[in-house]
Design goal:
Blueprint lengths: L2 H19 L3 H12 L3 H16 L1 H11 L10 H16 L5 H15 L4 H27 L19
Helix pairs in contact: 1-2, 1-3, 1-5, 3-5, 4-5, 4-7, 5-6, 5-7, 6-7
Amino acid sequence: MKVRRRARIAALQALFEVDMAHHVPEVTLRERLQASSLPAAGANFCRELLFGTLEKQKTLDAIIQRIAPEWPIEQMAPIDRNILRLAAYELLFRHDTPPKVAINEAIELAKMFGSDSSSRFVNGVLGTLLSNRQRLLAKSSEVSGPVEQDCCSKGASFSSSGG
């Protein structure tokens, strides 16, 4: 399995644990990285995905909610919710992953970890997000301030008390 997929899996597992058990992200990440034995580049990618997604979670949730209003974010299956957050973060705030790759990777994560219908749901939501991402980013910036800046490329850090 390729390094970036393994990094996405570790990031997803950490997001899920933080979301469901409210564990400290730094500790959760350290445990995930120990279990995955990723090389340095993969560990860095995983770290950027996890902390970037957590930092942008409110914006991501608002965007996902706009795309799938019939599925309140808190009522979505937790694994689907976290796959969508992770992929939406990659699509909207990371510029080193082609959009189709981010969507395909999310679909694969949904097949691995979700229910029988997860991959179709994830594909539908992310396809809509990709088609409307500029408009969605503009709407979310009206509500929450500028969101185009990538936290991880600017050296920002995530505080576990922040969300």
